[in-house]
Amino acid sequence: MRSTCSLPSRLQPRKLSTAICIALALCGVATSPALLAAEPTPRAAAADVPGGALDQTLSLYAERAGITLSYSPETVRGRVSPGSAGAQSVEEGLSQILGGTGLVAEKTASGYVVRPLRADDSYQLQPVTVEAAPTQSAFAPLPGYFASNASTATKTDLPILQTAQSISVVTAAQIADRKVDRVEDAVAYSAGVRTGGSGLDPRFDQINIRGFDTTMSADFLDGLRQPYNGWLSIYGTEAYALERIEVLKGPASVLYGQISPGGMVNRVSKRPSLQAKNQVEIQAGNHDHRQGQFDVGGKLDETGDVLFRTVGVYRDAHYDIEQLNNDVRMLAPSLSWQIDPATSLTLLAQYQERETAASPMLYHDGNRLTDFWQGDEYFDKLGQRQWTFGYEFEHAFNDTFSLQQNLRYGQLDTTNQYLQPYGTITNGVMERYAVGVYEDMESVSSDTRLVSRFATGELQHTLLTGWDYAWFDSSVLYATGPAPSIDINAPDYHQPVSRPGNLLADQDSLTQRSGIYLQDQIELDRWRLSAGVRRDWVHVRTSNNLSDSNSKRSDSATTYQLGALYLFDNGLAPYASYAESFLPQSGSNAGRPLKPTEGKQYEIGLKYQPPGTSALFTASLYHLTQENVSTRDPLNSLNTVQTGEQVSRGLELEAVADLSERLHLTASYSYNDPEVTKSNDGNQGKDPKDTPRHMAALWLDYKLPFGLGFGAGARYTSSVYGNNMNTVKSEDYTLFDAGVHYDFAGDLDGVRLAVNARNLTDKQYVNCQDGYCYRGEARSVITSLSYSW
C-alpha cells in the first residue's frame, strides 16, 4: 500500500485533518520516527470507517474522531485494516482498526501513537516531532502555493513527487494574490505554457503547452471534458470559482481520449470543505472595473456529513478598448454528503452569463497597428449563457474495490456578432459588413471507473478500469449582411446594424466520444511504475440544412502510456515516461475525411522535494512529435496529404515553494526547440509560427510581520515567427505584475485591502500572424477589499 497518508480521491474528509500524516516515506525514509500532527478540536468520541489500507483507514478515523494520531509510515506500510463499526469510544475504535495487524495505539500527552505490540505493556513510546511537509488532498483548499498532490495525471489523489510526468498546479492562493479573472492569466507563470498568442482575445482562453494549442481540445473541468463544437461555443470558467488549476504536460489520451499532444488544463472546482474559508470581496479598477464576489459554505448537520458551498461573481467592466465589455454574472452552488463511511456524493452546479467582444482586433494600417477599432459597441459582442449540473459519486465495496462515477450535463447558448472591413479606405472612410454566428449546444460528459487496490507478491497495485463517454448536440447559424461605413478619424460606434440575414451555414451536428481504459500504478519498494492502454471511438453526424444533406464520420485509435520513477531518501525522484495522443481533424481531402493527428512524447526528468519543506523543484527534458499533419499534395495543389510532421524538443524548469508562512514563490523557465520536420509547403526545417523558444517567469509574495505585504512578478516571452516561412517576426517582451496588500488585525481581523496591477509598465506589445496583428492587453489596476472568516 502507499507509504503516504492520502485518502482515496473521493473519500477525502470534509474537515481539516486531525492527523496530518507526514510524508517522509514520500522521500523514501524507511526508518522515520513517529510523526505528529496538529491537534484540532475533537468532534466525536468515536467514528465508523471502512476497512482498507491501514494508513488510509487511520487517517480517515483520526479525521472523524477528532484526535491526534502519530505513526511511522514504515510501520503501517502494506498492512490492511478491517475498519471499525459501532465502537463506543476512541480506544475501542482504534482497537478494531488495528485488529490483526500486530500494532496497538497508545495514548500519550500528545495524542495517540501507533506502535508494534510488545510483551512489556508498560512500555511508553515517546513521540518525536519530525519537521516535514504534510501530504494534502488534490481536491481540498490549500493555504499557499505548494501542492503536494494532484489528480489529473492518474485520476487518483497521488503525490506529484511520485508521478512520472510533468505537472504544474496553480492554487487558489496564487489566483487570489495575483487577482486574475481568467484561467489564461492564472497559468501564465507555469513552465511550458504560452498564453495570449493572439493578444487580447477574451472570447476564450488562449493556452499553448510545449508548442501546441490546447484551447479547443484540452479544456477540462473536474476531470471531465468541456465540449467544443468547432465554432465558438466554448464553456467559460471564472478563475475565482476554482480551487486549483492543474496543467499536465504532454500527451494524455490514455486517460482522457482525444486531446492536444501538448497536454491539458484541468480546472478543479471549489467544493464543500470545512477547510475552506468564507469570503466576501468587492473590487474597483481602471477600465470601469466593478466587481463583487463571495465564497461561503459550511455544515448543514451537526456531524458535518452534509456540507454546502456557494461561489458567486458579479462583474461590470471593460477592457482597455473602451467598447469591449468584460461582464460576468456567475453562481456556483455545491453540496456534499457523506452518506456512510464508504459512500460519498458531491453535487456541483453553475449558472453563468457573460458578454465580451466578438472580435477584439484593431485596424492594421500597413506596418502600423492603430488604436482604431472597426466594430460597433451595440452590435459587436460575444454573449453567452450557460448552466451545468453534475455529480461525483464514490462507493468503497471493501478494502480492494471502489467505484467512482463523475457526470455533468450542460447547456450553452452563444451569440457572436462583429463587423469586418472590406475593400479599400477612401478619404478615411472604411466600408464594413456584418457577421453573425449563433449557436446552441447541450452536452453530457461522464467517467465511470473501478479502482482496485491489491498486491501481487511484492508489487502493490492501484488499477483503474474505466469507461468515459461524452455526447454533445449543437446547432449553428452563420450569416453575413450589410453594415454602415465608419470614419476612422471620427468614429461613430453607435450606428444601427441589422442582424445578418445571408445564411452561409445552417447545420446541426451530433458528436459521441467514448473510450475504455486500463491503467496500473505499481509500487515496488521505492519504485513507482505505471502502464496504461486505451481504445477510443469518435462518431460525428452533421446535417447541412441549406443543402438538405447529411454526412457521417468515425475515427478510432489505441494509445499507450508508460512511466517509471524512483524515490531516493533525500527527496530526489528521477523519472522517465512515454505517452501518446490522438486528435480527430475536421474537413476532408478529395472526399475522404482527414485522419486524426497523432502525438508521441518521450520525457525524462528529476523532481526534488526537500524533506521537511513545502517546496517542489522539477526539471524535465522532452521530445514531442505530432504526425499526420496536413500539407500540400505535391501531385495536386488543390488537395492535401497528411504526411506533415512537427517536433518540439525542450527543457523545462519549475519551482513552487512556501518558504515560510510569509514568503511564497513560483518560478519557471522553458526552452523549446520547435521544428517542422516534414512538409510539402516549403517550410520544412523552419520554426512553427507563434512558438517562442524561451519563456521565463518569477512571482514572489512576502508579508511583513505587521500586516503589510508585497507581491511582484515578471513574465518574459521571446520573439516568434508570424508565418510559416519565418519571414515575419514579432519582438520579444517582458511584462511586470505587482501587488501590495494589508491585513488588518484586532476587531478587523480577516479584512484585507489590496491593490494589484497587471502589465504594470503598460508595455505595448504586438503579435502578428499571417497578416493579422494583435495587440496585447494594456495595464489593468484593481483595488480590492475582502473579509475572510
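The record above closes out task 2.4. Task 2.5 opens with a second protein, given below.
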Amino acid sequence: MLQEQTVGVGSSDMTFELADVAVVAPQSSQRAQSAPKIRRAAIMGNFPPRMCGLATFTRDMYACLSRALPKAGWRVVAMNDPNGAYDYPDVVTDQIPQNDPDAYRRLAASLNADGIDVMFVQHEFGIFGGPAGEYLIECLERLNMPVVTTLHTVLETPNDDQKRVMAALIRVSSTLITMAERGAKILREVYKVPDAQILVVPHGAPSRPLGDTERFKEVFGVGGQKTLMTFGLLSPNKGIETIIRALPDILDSTPDLSYLIVGATHPHLVASQGEAYRDSLMDMARQLGVEDHIVFVNRFMDDAELIDILQATDIYVTPYLTETQITSGTLSYALALGRPVVSTPYWHAAEALADGVGIICPFEDSAAFAREISNLLTSDEHRAAMSQRAYDYARPSRWSAVADSYVNRAAADIDTGKIAAGNIAGRPVKPERPRDYLTHPPSWEAIERMSDDCGIFQHGKFRLADRNHGYCTDDNCRALSLIALQSGWVEESATRDRLAYTYAAFVNHAWTGERFRNFMDYGRHWLDDGGSDDCCARTLESLIDTVRSNLPDDLRLWAKELAQRVIPQSENWTSQRSRAILIRVLSRALGHVGDEADIRTRIRELSRLLRNGLSDHSDGGHAWFEPALSYDNARLPEGLILAGETLRDQSLIDEGADTLSWLMAQQTCTQGGHFRPVPTSRFDQGGQTVALFDQQSLEVQATLNACLTAWRVTQDTRWKDEAFRAFAWFHGENDHGLSLITADGGCFDGLTPEGCNQNQGAESLLAYHLSWTAMMANL
C-alpha cells in the first residue's frame, strides 16, 4: 500500500547545523581584503519559519554572508504575507507587512540612519506588495547604499506590471545576480541590462563528502532498496505524474525500488482545494499497481533533513512541466551532494546537466524517463561515474564560494560609488561617465540666506534677498518639493527640518479652498486672489512629493489631506502646462492619494487634451502643442510620456518622445553641440527665429526632468546623454562657457548677452538644486 511517512533525522552523526552545512571553508585572503569595507549590511527576503524555498535561501544566504563578514553588524528584514506574522528567530531585526507601502519607506529611512553599507535583496515577484511587487521600489529607491539584488525569477515574457517593476529594479540595483547563464542572457536581451551590472553566481549548496547512500537509507526506512526522489512543495507543475507513469517499466528491471515524494502540498493549493491533488496522485499509483513503491513524506523539511534524504537517494528526478524555472535550489543541492539527476529541460536543468553532468528527458515523456532511470539503476558503474561528475561540477556552488562572490562584488560596488540614492521612481545606477559636479550635494547656504520665518523670497538682488518683491507660492512649493525629494538620503539638518515646516505653512496658507494664491508682499499680504493654473499644478506636485517622502508623519498627513481637497478643484485648470504637470502629479499619486480608477480616467482625459493641442498646432517644421515655445516647455512632451506609461499606451509614449526630440533639436547649438535652452526673448516669436538670450534655469530643469523620464520609460540611453547635456549648462557648457553655480549653492539668474545675470533669485537656485537632485536620483 501507499506509504506516508513523517520521519526525523536519525543518529547524531548525521545531523548538521546550518553553519556546518552552509559555510565550512575558512575565509580566503580575497574575502579578508573585501570584508573591512562592509561594516554593516542588510538582507531582505522571506525567512523561516515561513515555509518556502526563498525563505530557506535567505536564511542560508545570511548564514554564509555573516560567516564571511564576522565583524559586520546585520539587519535581517523578513517579509510578512497577508496571513500574519511569524515566530522568527532573534536574528530577524525587521518585519515588513507585504501590503503596507509606508513600511517600505520607513525601512529605507531606518537603514540609511543605521549606516548600512550594502543591501542584499532576495527578489521574487510574489513576496512584495503592490502590482508585481512595486512597493519594494518604494524602499530601494530611497537607499543611499549599493543594492545587490538576487533575481530568483527572470521572466522572458513579463506582463506590463512586471516589466515596469523589473525596469525600476534594474535601475535601483548596483548589481543584479542571477543563478544561471540563461538568466543573464534574458537580462541582456529582454531588459537591455549591460554586462557590467550582471553577475552569475550559482545557487548555494552544502559541502559534504561524497559518500555511500546506504547508511542514510536506513534512517528513512528504505534500506536495501534503490531510491528515486523528488522534492518540493507539491503542486501540478512538478510533473510527478510523469514518474508515476514510468514506474511500471522501471520496476521490470529494478523491483526493489522506492520513489520518495518529499514535501508538503503548496499552501495556496491546500487553501483552494485541500489535498485533492495529492489524493489524485495516490489514485493514479493504485490504478497502475505501483502504490507499494511510493513513499509520500508530507511535510516541509529543513535543510539538515533534506541533505540527509538526498544522500539516501540513488537518482534525483525533476520532471517539471515547463521550461521557465531559472533556478532550483534542490537541484543545486542534489548536484553538490553528487546525486545523479534525470530531469526535464527546464532552464536551470538544461544548463546544469549539460556535458554528461546529468540526463535530460523531454517534458511529460514517461517512456524516456523509464529508459534513462532503468539504465542508471542497473549499472552501478554508470551511476557512480555520473555521481562524481555532478559532485565536481557543483564545487563552485559551495556556500563558502558563493559568499566570496557576493562579498567581493558588494565591496566593489561600494568602491565605485554605485549608490541607489534618491526617492524619484526609476533610479538607475550611477552613470557610466560621472562628472565632478555630481560628486557632492550643493551647499544649502544660499537657500537658507534666501529664507526667513515666512518662506523663501522670490527675487534676489545680487546675493541679497530682495524684500521689495516679497514671496510667491511657486517658489515655496518648489522649496518644499526639494526637501521632500532629498529626505532620507541627503544628510539632514535641524535647519532643513525647520524650513520644511516653514514652506509647508506657506503653501497651506496659500490655499483658498478653490486654488492657491501666488504672490505675497513683505508685509505678508496676499496680492492676488488665486495663482495661475500652472502655479496650482506645481503646488499640488509639492504635496504629492511630501506624501511620498521621508519627512515627519505629521507633514505627510497634512500633505495628503490637503491634496485630497485640491485634486477635485484641478478640473478647473485648463492651461496645457498645468495639464502636463497634473499628469506627472497624478501618476505619482497612484497608490498614495485618491482612487486609482479615477486617477487613470483623469490622466486619460488630460492626455487627450494635450494631444488635441499637438494636433491643432503642429504644422510642417513646428511639431508642438502651442503656437509658440515659451517657458517650462519640456513639461508638455513629458506629460504624454508619463500618460503613456501609466495607461500602457505606446502611441502616447512615442508621440511624447518625438516632440521631445523636436524640442531638443531647437535647444542645441549647431556649432558646439551644447545645450541652449529656449530663451525668454523667443517666447513671442512663434518659433520662427533662434534667439540666444535670456536663458533661464527653469528651462534646464524642465528639460532634464523630461529627458530622465524618457530614459526611464523608453530605456533609450540617448535620453540619459541629453539629460547630462542639459545639466552641464549650469556648469559652463553653454554659450558663454560660464558656470552659473556659486560655492554656497547659489545660482545666477540665467545667461544674458553680457554673461551671467548676477542676481540670484529663488527660482534659479531651486531649479539648480532640483536638477541636481533629479540627476542623482536617476543616475
